[in-house]
């Protein structure tokens, strides 16, 4: 196994044991970027020289006994919505061509303090307003979409061009590309990870979280990221414990809710079969499977779009009026549509969200975790605009990919996407675990237990 193939946890263990140096690890990842990036397009920019300097400094710290923790010396990629002082934050848009960040975002500063080594900024669907990230190719099939909007981050982790990465998630943008590329994606509880210094899509739906190779890796990253920041009005005072899950696979006494409605409607047969196999695996570990009814499903799509569209348009109000031609057509149309939405629709969406949060609170008294597909279909061919279901109905790709992710953004509950196999075309399938607010330890425990029963996942072949 090459160093670039190591999980975060294994790399950290090797660095701590001094059987692997940060320089060796970073050099291996940079060599992998040089080999794979021309075929993938995951990165907006690669910061190779800065990464090598940081790796040498980390190596000196480790040799002197100044190990800062499990992230020290480990290569990291950041979605290019996340500010790093002195670097461009392009949001993968011509609108930001001349932008330079004046200061680090909270998450970038926390990861730097933990010793992580930034190797580059990754592509997003323009301003995170889409589910495909068209600049980037799927790590398992270059002719298919990467998923979005954190497509670059997910592809980098899947292909070994970053050991871990950060993404943002407003309607599924961490979980969707993670599922489509066979990696782990965690959308934390709303407010658990601060968003100061992160370009917003929709302030009341935006989250920042890790994309990793394993559930344990996600826990390590979350421990470094979580904590209050007064500069983010939504930031929670509670920062939570060390989230690293223990090794036991015993889930006795845990209730896992299996939706009887919504989450298995219009889902590809191979996706449903893989998720139900994973559920059977959790049951074999002692978990109790209980059927649950997902509340207010008829309002999910309208509430998601009713919140996101006007908030996004408000953020882009000035540039939409002064340089509309610099936006890609799909994003410009959505932003312009937001100008046509009446205030009453936005207020009704806010009221629906309040009712939905209350209903999900009651739902999560019946089960400790809800388990379901992350996305209803695997990665579509690049350029495909619709998915046709077996009953003959069609759905836009964006609507399909956001459909199963949106409830966690509307309600703010944590959600974890875990790989649960591949379809017959070799494309990854993800299972989504949803929990109570600040219930990340339970989600990570369940995901980790499942993962321990499966063969080690391989790095995507490029």
From TrEMBL:
Pfam families: Amidase
Classification via Gene3D superfamilies: Amidase signature (AS) domain
GO molecular function, one term: catalytic activity
Domain Amidase: 24-444
InterPro entries reported for this sequence: Amidase (IPR000120), Amidase_CS (IPR020556), Amidase_dom (IPR023631), AS_sf (IPR036928)
Signal sequence segment: none
Recorded superkingdom: Bacteria
Name under which the protein is recorded: Asp-tRNA(Asn)/Glu-tRNA(Gln) amidotransferase GatCAB subunit A
Native source organism of the sequence: Streptomyces griseicoloratus
């Amino acid at each position: 196994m090459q160093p670039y193939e190591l999980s975060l946890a294994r790399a950290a263990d090797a660095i701590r044991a001094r059987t692997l140096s940060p320089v060796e690890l970073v050099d291996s990842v940079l060599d992998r970027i040089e080999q794979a990036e021309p075929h993938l397009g995951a990165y907006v920019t690669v910061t190779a020289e800065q990464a090598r300097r940081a790796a040498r400094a980390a190596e000196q710290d480790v040799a002197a006994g100044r190990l800062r923790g499990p992230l020290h010396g480990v290569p990291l990629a950041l979605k290019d919505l996340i500010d790093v002082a002195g670097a461009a934050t392009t949001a993968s848009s011509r609108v930001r061509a001349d932008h330079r960040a004046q200061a680090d975002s909270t998450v970038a500063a926390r990861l730097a303090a933990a010793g992580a080594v930034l190797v580059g900024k990754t592509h997003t669907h323009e301003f995170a307003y889409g589910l495909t990230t068209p600049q980037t190719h799927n790590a398992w099939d270059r002719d298919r979409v990467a998923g979005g909007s954190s497509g670059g981050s997910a592809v980098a982790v899947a292909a070994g061009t970053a050991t871990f990465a950060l993404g943002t998630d407003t309607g599924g943008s961490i979980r969707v590309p993670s599922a489509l590329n066979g990696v782990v994606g965690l959308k934390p509880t709303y407010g658990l990870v601060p968003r100061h210094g992160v370009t917003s899509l929709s302030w009341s739906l935006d989250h920042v979280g890790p994309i990793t190779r394993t559930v344990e890796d996600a826990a390590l990253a979350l421990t470094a990221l979580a904590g209050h920041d007064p500069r983010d009005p939504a930031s929670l005072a509670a920062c939570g414990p060390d989230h690293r899950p223990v090794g036991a696979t015993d889930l006795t006494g845990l209730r896992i809710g299996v939706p009887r409605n919504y989450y298995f409607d219009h889902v590809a047969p191979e996706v449903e079969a893989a998720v139900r196999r994973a559920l059977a695996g959790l049951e074999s570990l002692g978990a109790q499977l209980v059927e649950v009814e997902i509340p207010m499903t008829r309002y999910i799509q309208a509430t998601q779009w009713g919140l996101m569209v006007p908030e996004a348009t408000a953020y882009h109000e000035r540039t939409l009026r002064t340089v509309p031609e610099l936006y890609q057509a799909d994003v410009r149309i959505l932003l312009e549509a937001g100008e046509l939405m009446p205030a009453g629709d936005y207020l009704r969406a806010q009221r629906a969200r309040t009712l939905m949060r209350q209903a999900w609170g009651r739902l999560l008294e019946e089960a400790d975790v809800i388990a379901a597909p992350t996305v209803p279909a695997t990665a579509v061919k690049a350029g495909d605009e619709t998915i046709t279901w077996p009953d003959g109905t069609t759905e836009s790709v964006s609507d399909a990919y956001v459909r199963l992710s949106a409830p966690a953004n509307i309600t703010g509950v944590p959600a974890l996407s875990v790989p649960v196999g591949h379809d017959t075309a070799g494309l990854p399938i993800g299972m989504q675990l949803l929990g109570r607010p600040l219930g990340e330890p339970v989600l990570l425990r369940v995901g980790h237990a499942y993962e321990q029963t499966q063969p080690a996942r391989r790095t995507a072949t490029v």
